[in-house]
Amino acid sequence: MSEALKGTVLLVDDDPAVAKVLGALLAQAGLTTYAAKDGEEALAHLERKPVDVVVSDVRMPGMDGMRLLTEISRNWPDVPVILLTAHGTVPLAVEAMKAGAADFVLKPFDREEILFTIRKALLRAHGEESLESLRTPSAFVGGSRRMQEVQGLLAKAAAGMATVLLRGESGTGKELAAKAVHDGSPRRAGPFVKLHCAALPDTLLESELFGYEKGAFTGAATRKPGRVELAHGGTLFLDEIGDISPTVQVKLLRVIQERELERLGGTQTLKVDVRFVAATHQPLEDLVKQGRFREDLFYRLNVVPLWLPSLRERPEDIEPLARHFLDAHAKTNAKPPFTLTDEGLAVLQAQPWPGNVRQLQNFLERLVVLADGQTLTGEDVMRELARQPGLTSPVSPASQAAIATSEPGGQASSSESGRTLESQRKDMERQAMVDALKRAGDNRTLAARLLGISRRTLYNKLEEHGLL
């Protein structure tokens, strides 16, 4: 989250381990939490002490989450209730929303998803809910022409119901853009469900997407709905759609075309009402030509294509982004505000940031944590850059000026002037990966972490530069 949350949350779950883990997560985000093991204990707590939000499991002995929701809606109508369950079904989700639930989240929950959901509920409880206030603007900070165009297109896309395909490099904010599409759409009251396609092998991806029936395979002890079902009435965000296998592509195409599916091991055809938003950093057109991605699926996804620019394409946004992240990380780490000098900013602006906004954000968080004072100079920035092999060799603005004027007439040498910015960028990117792999002892997972990018992105870049 971009800033610490404030408020009180009552956690209701008969599993003390879940309450403990979730409580620690919310406490880290700045929230005060209380725990109750069942619905009766939760109601007794509400009688004694008010809370801002209730987060409750659905399946509990005695009074379950649905009955608890009914009681809270009747006696404390201003307290939003978020329901958690590992056994969610579309009818139950719809029933919960109709009964007044603020949201419905499936276990195991994603950290950022649950924090965003609770933040939204807190804003609603405090009477501050609006589309603009709900959005975490980190990736969209800055007033560059490119980002103004992107935000305008996102607003137009959100108002309709068409499938949206978000394109752009890793770290440019595609997930944030997908959430903005959902929040600005007529489906904003429905669920926003996301799935990172590259993070799962084919077998797991298929079951996560479409769900499965009891006994569909070894270990399938109960029926489980897929993400498509859980997004009924809302939006399903499929990140890294270019990584799905041909088998999954065929099944996904049917869902998008027919709005129906069958769970693994099942024979019943289920109708679903879902808006699809997909994202990829890969050139899908090339994958189509290579026979690795279905052409018909590409056209189904590419109804409203939106390109998110890299940070290199909007360098004027580095300053507002840097100051935004410094303020946010200072609050998160309970530190006073930081001041970034002009030289420090110039050093940041001289970097290529191959990991885009995400890499800049992670770098500034390390800078905040390791800083000795509250004023960040060019030397402070360069000192931390020297520890990061994923970035270019730190050179101060003064040194850059000296280099620029070392040639006759203050011009760069003819050999340099003949090289395009893109070719120089690729050289720096390649060297950054070589340095990271060397420092990581050729461990690609660690190298990706050092570079501030995903392992999948690293593999794609290694292949692009002939380093595999």
TrEMBL record:
PTM sites of type 4-aspartylphosphate: D57
Biased composition (Polar residues): 390-403, 411-421
Disordered as annotated region, ranges: 389-429
CDD domains according to UniProt: AAA
Response regulatory domain sequence ranges: 8-122
Swiss-Prot/TrEMBL keywords: ATP-binding, DNA-binding, Nucleotide-binding, Phosphoprotein, Transcription, Transcription regulation
Domain Sigma-54 factor interaction residues, every copy: 140-369
InterPro entries reported for this sequence: AAA+_ATPase, AAA_lid_NorR, CheY-like_superfamily, Homeodomain-like_sf, HTH_Fis, P-loop_NTPase, Sig_transdc_resp-reg_receiver, Sigma_54_int
SUPFAM superfamilies to which the protein is assigned, alphabetical: CheY-like, Homeodomain-like, P-loop containing nucleoside triphosphate hydrolases
Protein name: Sigma-54-dependent Fis family transcriptional regulator
Species: Myxococcus landrumensis
